[in-house]
Amino acid sequence: AKHQYARLNPIYLGDDRYSRQPTCEAVLATGGNFRFVRKPDSHPLIPEYITGIELPSHAVPVKRGRKR
User: What 8-state DSSP symbol labels residue 66?
Assistant: First the structure.
């Protein structure tokens, strides 16, 4: 039953309560993806971990009237 929704490629959303490793691993084990927010005090090492890395970006120009 845990894989019945995997074919839908679900994205699970959650707040700080869900942003723990066991929950993240459980979502990935079902074939899903997640977007959990976190409080800075809950995970103090994350900013230290991502400092200095180059994050990929994707920009799409949008035209509104004569402006982009």
Answer: T
Contact between residue 2 and residue 23 where contact means Cβ atoms under 8 Å apart: no
Give backbone dihedrals phi and psi of 13, rounded to 5 degrees, phi first: -110, 145
**Confidence check: pLDDT of 25 > 60:** yes
Q: In whole angstroms, give the CA distance from residue 37 to residue 49.
A: 16
DSSP states of 14-35: E-GGG-SHHHHHHHHHTT-EEE
Distance of CA 54 to the CA centre of its chain: 17
Q: For the whole model, what pTM was predicted?
A: 0.55
Most confident of 18-27, 46-55, 59-68: 18-27
